[in-house]
TrEMBL record:
Keywords: Flavoprotein, Oxidoreductase. Residues 25-95 form the Acyl-CoA dehydrogenase/oxidase N-terminal domain. SUPFAM superfamilies: Acyl-CoA dehydrogenase C-terminal domain-like (SSF47203), Acyl-CoA dehydrogenase NM domain-like (SSF56645). It comes from Bradyrhizobium macuxiense. Gene3D superfamilies: Acyl-CoA dehydrogenase/oxidase, N-terminal domain, Butyryl-CoA Dehydrogenase, subunit A, domain 2, Butyryl-CoA Dehydrogenase, subunit A, domain 3. This is Acyl-CoA dehydrogenase. Residues 132-222 form the Acyl-CoA oxidase/dehydrogenase middle domain. One of its GO terms (molecular function) is flavin adenine dinucleotide binding. InterPro entries: Acyl-CoA_DH_C, Acyl-CoA_Oxase/DH_mid-dom, Acyl-CoA_Oxase/DH_mid-dom_sf, AcylCo_DH-like_C, AcylCoA_DH/ox_N, AcylCoA_DH/ox_N_sf, AcylCoA_DH/oxidase_NM_dom_sf, Mito_Isobutyryl-CoADH. The lineage of its organism: Bacteria, Pseudomonadati, Pseudomonadota, Alphaproteobacteria, Hyphomicrobiales. The keyword Cytoplasm does not apply. It holds the Pfam family Acyl-CoA_dh_2. Coiled coil: none annotated.
Length: 390
């Protein structure tokens, strides 16, 4: 089995959270098939994560959290992604927001401290709500249709956000919206969940990651405090994406989908060792053709491990990284993961596609890796333009 090997020995504090994640992963994996089948949200997983201190993993130590960097968080997400990628995806979005808060000069300190305290003390998750039916992915450009209107009593927010991962459990929304001012501004507003005028439409009925609760959140003239404006600027000021958010998003998404591929690989190895066709009289694992395909899977996972580990370490060490490079890492790892699962399916015939086995679920889940921003075409075009100087 391919494993991620750290460049330096993990510290004792880091190891304890890895051990906790491994302990939880066993129960998460046992629950995952039912949540996938029913498209039900795994609330119990987040209660477990909170109890073990893992919701506060990227909350700064000074605010009561663990203070983990991207490397440790990616290892935890890889473990959870191997067990239940829907849970890992919700968790990753929460981790990203707290890393951004810790590094941003635009987040008001009192709000960062408030959200940190809530996360340390209980199940209080946050995610960014950005995607809209009309706009599509904000990374493709364009202004949101969600509008924040400034009044004497507070901001009044109206709009609709689709693919809002973790919607059933979120306590806070970081909403991407535009203002109705004479000179329009656009950016992030912090909105508490459950305010009057807020409702969730259970629209998430997906091929993969069915338990992620990525439903539609609707805001109908929702009032929240004026000082919950987080980072709102002129549209042109957003042409350069937030470095921290873009980089850790790429690392975390890569870790989750690599975890799915590793789960598929684990099942495949067991299957090939135990499957003894009558006409062969020996396990399928003894066949050179099967050994070669498994070796190809191992090769892809080894490359993934090195990419995730080294890139996360560089980020944590403060090296100057480019957005293009982070996007290429995400593209490479997710496509390696998809190919690894496809290769596993090629060796297992109907067994791999049967719902009695987990491989078909891993395949449905891993395909979602290509959907996350930035999509493959955008990454390749950006890299090509940079190389060509156009």
């Amino acid at each position: 089995m391919v494993t991620i090997v750290a460049k330096e020995a993990p510290q004792a504090s880091e190891l304890q959270y890895i051990v906790r994640a491994l302990r939880l992963a066993e129960s998460f994996a046992a629950r995952a098939p039912a949540h996938d089948r029913d498209a039900s949200f795994p609330f119990e997983n987040f209660a477990d994560l909170s109890r073990e201190g893992l919701l506060a993993l990227t909350v700064p130590a000074a605010l009561g959290g663990v203070g983990a960097g991207a490397g440790e968080a990616a290892r935890v997400l890889g473990i959870i992604g191997r067990a239940d990628p829907s849970t890992a995806l919700v968790l990753s979005m929460h981790y990203i927001q707290h890393l951004v808060m810790a590094r941003s000069t635009r987040w008001p300190g009192r709000l960062s401290r408030k959200l940190a305290k809530e996360t340390v003390e209980g199940v209080a998750l946050i995610n960014a709500l950005r995607v809209e039916p009309e706009l599509g992915s904000p990374a493709r450009g364009g202004l949101p249709t969600t509008i924040a209107r400034r009044t004497e009593t507070g901001w009044r927010l109206s709009g609709r956000k689709i693919y809002s991962t973790g919607a059933p459990i979120l306590k806070w929304y970081a909403v991407w919206a535009k203002t109705d001012e004479l000179e329009t501004r656009v950016g992030i507003f912090l909105v508490p969940a459950g305010l009057p005028g807020t409702r969730i439409e259970e629209t998430w009925d997906h091929l993969g990651l069915r338990a992620s609760g990525s439903h539609t959140v609707i805001f109908d003239d929702v009032v929240f405090p004026l000082d919950y404006e987080i980072d709102v600027r002129k549209p042109d000021d957003w042409k350069v994406p937030d470095f921290t958010q873009a980089t850790v998003h790429a690392i975390f998404i890569a870790a989750i989908y690599d975890g799915i591929a590793r789960a598929a690989r684990d099942w495949l190895v067991t299957f090939l060792k135990e499957r003894v066709p009558a006409n062969l009289g020996a396990p399928l694992a003894t066949l050179p053709r099967f050994q070669e395909v498994v070796g190809g899977i191992e090769t892809r996972l080894a490359v993934n491990a090195r990419l995730i580990e080294s890139f996360a370490a560089d980020f944590d060490d403060g090296f100057q990284l480019s957005a293009i490079e982070s996007n290429i890492v995400k593209l490479t790892v997710t496509n390696n993961a998809v190919k690894a699962v496809e290769d596993a399916l090629s060796l297992t015939s109907n067994h791999g596609l049967s719902r009695t086995n987990p491989l078909e679920r891993h395949y449905r889940d891993v395909l979602c890796g290509r959907v996350h921003t930035p999509q493959d075409d955008a990454t390749r075009i950006s890299a090509g333009r940079l190389a060509l100087g156009v």
